[in-house]
């Protein structure tokens, strides 16, 4: 009996996890690449699209790997605002006020050291 309850809970949590993971889709495209001396840099445009069917008020974009900004003072990432945690960003206030409608997108960009894009995940999605 306990095993069946455990399996049912596990399946329910897996479904919820998949549902939450599908609230926004994300793509990145290379806008520019250049060399400065012996160092490579690349500029990336990120498009995050609302696919959840509700208006999204805010979401957190977490730079998981290969996130090496050329200039760490903040000039090399735009279109999002930093949170209090390192390598985490969220919607600017003016977007959070009206939200992102279903099938609409938010774009942001960054300049990375090297020629590869960073890997981002999306979490803490808040709907209206």
The CATH class: Mainly Beta
Strand content: over 45%
Percentage of residues assigned to helices: 10-25%
- The whole-number mean of residue pLDDT values reads 86
- Largest sheet features: 4 strands, antiparallel
Q: If strands are numbered along the chain, what order do they take across the biggest sheet?
A: 1-2-7-4
Structure summary, number of beta strands: 8
Helix run count: 2
> In total, how many domains does the architecture comprise?
1
* Derived structural class: alpha+beta
Architecture overview:
The chain is 20% helix and 47% strand. The radius of gyration is 18 Å and the shape is elongated. It has 128 residues and is α+β, with helices and mostly antiparallel strands. The chain has helices at residues 2-21, 93-98, and strands at 24-36, 39-50, 56-65, 77-78, 81-82, 88-90, 105-113, 119-127. The strands form two sheets. It has a four-stranded antiparallel β-sheet, with no helix packed on it. Strands 5-6-3-8 form a four-stranded antiparallel β-sheet. It has two helices and eight strands; from the N terminus they run αββββββαββ. The chain has one domain (24-127): Immunoglobulin-like (Sandwich), CATH 2.60.40.
């Amino acid at each position: 009996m306990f095993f069946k309850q455990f399996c049912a809970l596990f399946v329910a949590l897996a479904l919820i996890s998949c549902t939450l993971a599908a609230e926004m889709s994300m793509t990145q495209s290379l806008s520019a690449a250049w060399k400065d001396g012996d160092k490579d840099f690349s500029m990336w445009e990120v498009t995050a699209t609302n696919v959840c069917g509700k208006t999204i008020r805010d979401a957190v974009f977490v730079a998981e790997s290969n996130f090496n900004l050329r200039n760490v003072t903040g000039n090399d990432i735009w279109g999002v605002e930093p949170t209090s945690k390192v390598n985490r960003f969220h919607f600017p206030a003016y977007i959070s006020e009206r939200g992102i409608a279903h099938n609409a997108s938010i774009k942001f960009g960054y300049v990375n050291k090297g020629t590869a894009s960073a890997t981002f995940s999306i979490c803490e999605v808040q709907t209206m």
